[in-house]
Design brief:
Length: 327
């Protein structure tokens, strides 16, 4: 893939550093509203083309894939523009602001025959896939807990009365979208869409800075903690009648996990040899495009849609309304 990027934040640097470990990928262009904000990234990755006009970048025939890392509320617009320009698209999480935008992007993907991906780490990680395969050994499942808590670098500015993008309704921010989305990918990747959703959120100026998301699957209860205003121990735990699986660290990484069975047996899941969380989905995307595997692409988009459905239910439960939801 010859990749052009939208957005020059740290996530773009992290993602491109890992995508470029695949020899099929080449970083060829950067879009930024200002030339100077793209210069550091361009120098680091030896990118010769910097665009300050997005439409001009999308006309560049050398580019065949766009990585969208703009603020959340712009994901839909930028992904749509890129596909209409016949580019494959990787959209940073969260995929978009709501279900309607998600459904429209998926429909356009199928219409244009462009590949479209959500840049989510969890569901591509080898440890997650191994856990999913072994889940039956501790079933029936009764309880799942996930905690992903990171004190945001932007939270102090928010407390000072400033308006960082990640803490505004205008840019579809908040803990649910930025942090708890990883927990949702983990749980929905295992169980699918729940029957009921309730979000107990800590709200400040209309935006959730942390909260507990409760998912009910009838005979399985799930709690997902996502925080940007406090710190805690990040982990996932799946509890069943025959044993439990404990995952060290955040659901975004699914690092080493151990299955403890009631008979005393322990099984370790530690198949991730690469430290980079973005490495594995990058490889999956390269493979799908190379093999023209639309079926797998559409399957992952259906998963992203399911996550967005739960996000919309959670927002409604907590009374969170983004500017994008009013359109």
């Amino acid at each position: 893939m010859k990749i052009g990027t939208i957005g020059t934040g740290s996530i773009t640097d992290w993602v491109m550093g890992q995508l470029l470990e695949y020899e099929e990928n080449e970083y060829v262009a950067i879009y930024s509203r200002k030339q100077e904000t793209a210069q550091t990234l361009a120098e680091k990755y030896h990118v010769e083309k910097i665009y300050t006009d997005l439409d001009e970048m999308l006309k560049d025939d050398e580019i065949d894939c766009i990585y969208v890392a703009s603020p959340n509320s712009l994901h839909y617009e930028h992904a749509k523009k890129a596909m209409l320009a016949n580019k494959n698209v990787i959209v940073e999480k969260p995929f978009c602001s709501n279900v309607q935008e998600c459904e429209e992007l998926i429909a356009l993907c199928k219409e244009t025959k462009c590949f479209l991906f959500e840049a989510i780490t969890t569901v591509y990680n080898p440890n997650f896939l191994a856990i999913k395969e072994k889940l039956k050994e501790i079933s029936p499942i009764k309880v799942i807990e996930c905690n992903m808590s990171q004190y945001s670098r932007k939270y102090d500015a928010f407390l000072e009365g400033k308006k960082p993008n990640v803490f505004t309704l205008t840019f579809s921010g908040g803990a649910l979208m930025d942090i708890n989305v990883y927990n949702l990918h983990f749980v929905i990747g295992l169980l699918g869409v729940p029957q009921n959703v309730h979000y107990e959120a800590n709200i400040k100026e209309g935006i959730d800075t942390s909260g507990v998301l409760c998912l009910n699957y009838g005979d399985i209860s799930v709690s997902c903690v996502g925080s940007k205003d406090n710190i805690g121990v990040n982990f996932c735990q799946i509890q069943g009648e025959k044993g439990y699986i404990y995952v060290e660290g955040a659901s975004s990484l699914t690092k080493k996990a151990v299955m403890h069975l009631r008979n005393g047996e322990e099984v370790v899941f530690d198949d991730q040899k690469h430290d980079g969380a973005h490495y594995y989905y990058g490889g999956a995307m390269v493979k799908m495009i190379k093999e023209q595997d639309y079926e797998s692409c559409y399957k992952m988009l259906e998963h992203s849609l399911n996550v967005m459905k739960v996000i919309d239910m959670a927002k409604k439960s907590a009374g969170i309304v983004f500017d994008a939801d009013r359109k």
